[in-house]
């Protein structure tokens, strides 16, 4: 068949993703506070793009539960909501549990070494009260299972649910409540090293579900 005549579709797709990720990250890290109004002209000036990719990004963020669109009135950053956070957390925990169960049987020693190195970075970041570094190291740790699991649908599902969890997780990582995750990570590594897929999967699930118990009293507005 002839080559399609549409041009620049990949560039446009990347632009949409960049805009979405910029606004999403600003919500997750607290740059845009819960309840804050998001105005198109201000977002256009900040991001240097037209209104179209911004509106597309806001629709995605609304579906993810990070903003609330009030037709004819305003678009605001969604307040912290225990119910929606719990729902997202359950999805994230289930996806990471599945990734662990799929990845562990054939996990390479190099992957285990990567997890150990990531957990060391995680522990150091928590000790230094560096929330951004702690989140990055936590992502690096869990990404080992995601990369090795062979299921491309898992990251797609996480892309929608994880940002909601990340907002609360930032609160947890800025307190001493996250210190036990270092030990939890070490337990996951030990189970993976022994090729205990079910044990590693269940421990991974528990690690993600523990966020809700430690963050309930720490979320802003609670």
Describe this entry's structure for a reader.
This protein has a two-stranded antiparallel ribbon with strand order 1-2. α4 (82-103) crosses α6 and α8 runs antiparallel to α9. The model is unreliable at 1-10 and 214-222 (pLDDT under 50). It has helices spanning 9-28, 40-47, 51-63, 82-103, 109-127, 131-148, 153-173, 179-193, 197-215, and strands at residues 67-70, 74-77. The chain is elongated. It is mainly alpha-helical and 222 residues long. It folds into two domains: 9-77, Orthogonal Bundle (Arc Repressor Mutant, subunit A); 82-215, Up-down Bundle (Four Helix Bundle (Hemerythrin (Met), subunit A)). The protein has nine helices and two strands; from the N terminus they run αααββαααααα. A hairpin with a 3-residue loop joins β1 and β2 (74-77).
SSE order and pairing:
Layout lengths: L8 H20 L11 H8 L3 H13 L3 E4 L3 E4 L4 H22 L5 H19 L3 H18 L4 H21 L5 H15 L3 H19 L7
Helix pairs in contact: 1-3, 1-7, 4-6, 4-7, 4-9, 5-6, 5-8, 6-7, 7-9, 8-9
- How much is the average pLDDT? 87
Strand content range: under 5%
CATH topology of the largest domain: Four Helix Bundle (Hemerythrin (Met), subunit A)
The end-to-end span amounts to 59 Å
Number of domains: 2
The poorly predicted ranges are 1-10, 214-222
Number of contiguous helices: 9
